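Sequence in, structure out. Go.
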Amino acid sequence: MTGKRADSAASFVPEGADLAALRRAAASCEGCRLHVPATRTVFGAGPPDARLVLVGEQPGDVEDREGEPFVGPAGRLLDKALAETGLDRAGVYLTNAVKHFKFEERGKRRIHKSPTRGEVVACLPWLEAELAQVEPDLVVCLGATAAKAVLGTSFKVTEQRGLLQHVGEQAVIATVHPSAILRAPDRDEAYRGFVADLRVVHDHLYASS
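Output:
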């Protein structure tokens, strides 16, 4: 061990660092035990001056192997929805509340496991540092884990999705995670709801231009 706390990423986050320096520092984060089985840290990616930040739960299997956020099946569905609503992924900063892939092994497969609240809290300093650097006009939380990380544990995506919220001066909208659409009994209906939420995101961004 490095002598740094193993229950928080706070001491691994370099003060005042830009996104490139934060990414480098996050590669050696040991702020919780999730770094042990994961292949690598999957840090955020996108323009440092993005107006829109999308926050998911954690990287998946493909993201863990490739080292970039939202490049697996859920990421492809997200790309489709962004394009359909006039939001350019190239102009979006994408990240996750938790930077390591949490999973259980079943044979040769690695199956996603949701992070605990303690793991989310431990990783939160990275997200806070990213948001402080990007200073987006709007943060979109994808799924309950991301929404609770940003908006607090009482927030319920099922009841408050698509509604504009504020954390201090930061505007926030929560919706479902694209992976939830892939698991939905009626994918078409779930996708339409997701697109409707992203249209709210689009309208808010352009209304504030």
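Check: Confidence is low (pLDDT under 50) at residues 1-5. The helical segments are 19-26, 61-66, 73-84, 117-134, 144-151, 157-160, 178-183, 187-207.
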